[in-house]
Amino acid sequence: MTFLINIFFWLLSGLLKYQSSTEQSPPPSSPLFPCPNCGSHYMIKNGSIPKGKPKRQGKECGQPFVINPTNK
């Protein structure tokens, strides 16, 4: 009987860990630079500008932008 109780608690603790790990959080690659248009932290690469800086695109809105542009 104690064996079944131990298995139950083991499954319960695994479920709680799984639920806390599936919460949405910003990707680690860009935690400080949200999309200026929609504010989302989820973005995709969209080429680069002639000065070599990478362009990004907001995944939700589709608006392209450059992180820290040199000429504004």
Structure, explained:
With 72 residues, the chain is α+β, with helices and mostly antiparallel strands. It contains one helix and three strands. It has one helix at 2-21; strands at 43-48, 54-58, 64-66. A three-stranded antiparallel beta sheet has the order 1-2-3, with no helix packed on it. A hairpin with a 5-residue loop joins strand 1 and strand 2 (54-58). The chain is rod-shaped. The chain starts with a helix and ends in a 6-residue tail after the last strand. 4% of the residues are buried. The model has no long low-confidence stretch (mean pLDDT 79).
Keywords:
72 residues, alpha+beta, 3-stranded antiparallel beta sheet, 1 helix, 3 strands, 28% helix, 19% strand
Count of beta strands: 3
Please work out how many helical segments DSSP would assign.
Answer: 1
Uncertain segments of ≥5 residues (pLDDT<50)?
none
Helix content: 25-40%
Principal-axes shape call: rod-shaped
Oligomer: single chain
Instruction: Give the DSSP E fraction (strand runs of 2 or more residues).
Output: 15-25%
> Ends: how far apart?
70 Å
Give the topology string: H per helix, E per strand.
HEEE
What gyration radius follows from the Cα positions, in whole Å? 21 Å
